[in-house]
Specification:
Elements: E1 5-10, H1 14-25, E2 30-36, H2 39-49, E3 53-57, H3 65-75, E4 80-85, H4 90-99, E5 103-106, H5 111-122, H6 134-142, H7 156-166, H8 171-178, H9 182-196, H10 201-210, H11 216-219
Parallel strand pairs: 1-2, 1-3, 3-4, 4-5
Helix pairs in contact: 2-3, 3-4, 4-6, 6-10, 7-9, 7-10, 8-9
């Protein structure tokens, strides 16, 4: 039986922090090691409890999440940090990723996406929030965070579906435009995500932009 994932939450908004803590504490495979209201408290809490994963707000008093991430990863290089952000903080999200965060979530993320993000970073996978904008995806591709280009072969049909995924087509819409059943399209989509080693559409967009499978102009 594997040990529960140990978590620390850092956010200066008490109501948000407590709500997130309550949800995570109810998960059988997770345990809440502590909470922090600012970057300084986060450093002390991680040093004391040595968790597996930290969910940290980017904007916090005394020390922000970016600076705290840099310090923590120097001391605990295996620590997985997920940035928590607002829609308007795209530049800060990129800075947090470049500081060493393994992924990011917008604060309106639902329960399942939060759990998916934690599971992904524990498995040493990058996590991109489902609501990632084209602008943010392009910024990540151009940043020092994005992975190097990968040589993966895709069939012509897969490449066609990748472009439609990036353009936010639903499985039903893809099937109608390609004369395929929805089930067939979903099978292709599953294989594409597995090949790219990503979890959602945002991951597909970032991978496709990075590896020039689609251009930014095609998404605007």
């Amino acid at each position: 039986m594997t040990s529960p994932i140990r978590l620390v939450i850092a956010d200066d908004h008490e109501i948000f922090r407590d709500g997130l803590a309550l949800m995570l504490s109810r998960q059988k495979n997770m345990t809440l090691a502590g909470q922090a209201a600012d970057g300084g408290e986060l450093l002390a809490m991680v040093r004391e409890t040595q968790p597996d994963v930290v969910l940290a707000d980017i904007k916090m008093p005394h020390m922000d999440g970016i600076e705290a991430t840099k310090i923590l990863l120097q001391e605990f290089p295996d620590l997985k940090i997920i940035a928590l952000s607002m829609f308007s903080e795209e530049n800060l999200i990129v800075e947090m990723l470049e500081a060493g965060a393994k992924g990011y979530l917008l604060k309106n993320a639902d329960k399942q996406e939060i759990l998916d993000a934690i599971a992904s970073v524990v498995q040493n996978q990058e996590y991109y929030c489902r609501d990632t904008s084209v602008t943010l995806a392009s910024m990540i591709v151009k940043s020092n965070f994005s992975r190097k280009k990968e040589v993966i072969e895709f069939s012509d049909r897969e490449l066609e579906i990748i472009k439609l995924i990036c353009k936010q087509f639903t499985a039903q819409e893809m099937g109608e435009s390609m004369f395929l059943s929805r089930r067939t399209v979903e099978g292709y989509r599953t294989r594409i995500l597995e090949k790219m080693n990503v979890k959602n559409t945002a991951g597909v967009v970032i991978y496709a932009l990075k590896n020039k499978l689609i251009s930014e102009k095609e998404l605007l």
